[in-house]
Amino acid sequence: MLGKDLLGMYETSAEDIVTILDTAVGMKKLLTQNLKKLPHLQGRTVTTLFYENSTRTRCSFELAAKYLGAGTVNISASSSSVQKGETLIDTGYTLDAMKNDVIVIRHPMGGAPHLLAKHVKASVINGGDGMNEHPTQALLDFYTMREKFGSFHGLKVAILGDIKHSRVAKSNLFGLKKLGAEVVLYSPATLMPQGIERLGAKVARSKQETLSGANVVMGLRIQLERMQGGLFPSLSEYNQFYGVQESDLAYADKDCIVMHPGPVNRGVELTSDVIDAGNSKITEQVLNGVAVRMAVLFLLVKNRQGGEVRE
Ligand code: CP
Q1: Which residues line ligand 1 (CB under 6 A)?
Q2: For residue 57, how far is its CA from the centre of ligand 1 (angstroms)?
Q3: pLDDT tens string 23-57
Q4: Whose CA is nearest to atom 6 of ligand 1?
């Protein structure tokens, strides 16, 4: 059963993943009916505590909390007492003292959400920790795949891009293996973590091998901010050899979908025609992100000791 926190797909069982996805189905129905003043988390407070930039994750958590009736507070490191030297744990104690219920944290250091979760009474949700995990991104990706294909068994998910620096790749890999999908990774050798096969991934040797028969083609952002430089020759060569162009999709399954967690570097990971094509799910992923985050907030608060939610 889901516990107090959601820290990663590594720690989350297949059963809990399915429970979240099933709950998100109902949430998406409410969203698409434009029912955005729901009572489920009335009287609860959700704080987003972001030490790194974000558009999708922060905004969708805030909207998800508001749609469920919770109060919301946004803290960014640049405008908080972190600038005066306050530690992460002391920031957590401060939020607990104010009777805050949930903290969604994004932090450049892997493991920061786990440390915070050990010290606070509030539920902690990992909104992305360094190069470690981004569990709610993976959950919305799973939702999008299941919506299209109905099941994960026999699904080939091809992930191309900056695997080494990608928390999205790791969360997808951990979760998809539990759900029964095949995960094939492809990147320049400098952007592929050594030994990732031991976590269940298949590492492809060519773009054709990666895409051959793929049901899901997922591009990942080149994370220039986490690189020291010199990991590949140029962005245009990157696109040619490791990015996805329309002609590359001929190798994939004819019913394949294209995904990307965003933000996309157009013409680098995916060309514009691939991003804007009919089988691209990139915008749908964003909508599904709100539904999935509503489900996660609802289930965590419901499962807490003394958690009271309106169903
Ligand atoms: N996918 C994702 O995490 O996007 P943001 O950085 O905009 O939150």
Answers
A1: 54-57, 128, 134, 137, 261-263
A2: 5
A3: 999 999 999 999 998 999 999 999 999 999 999 99
A4: 54
Distance 168 CA to ligand 1 centre (A): 10
Cα 305 to averaged position of ligand 1 atoms, centre (Å): 31
Residue of 49, 52, 55, 282 to mutate, ligand 1, most atoms within 8 A of C-beta = 55
Tell me the residue length of the chain. 311
Tokens of 295: 């489900």
- DSSP code, position 2: -
**80, pLDDT greater than 90:** no
Q: Which of 3, 30, 2 is nearest to 16 (CA)?
A: 2
Closest C-alpha to 143, from 55, 266, 257: 257
Domains and CATH numbers, the chain: 14-133+286-307 (3.40.50.1370), 135-282 (3.40.50.1370)
State how far Cα 51 lies from the chain centre: 16
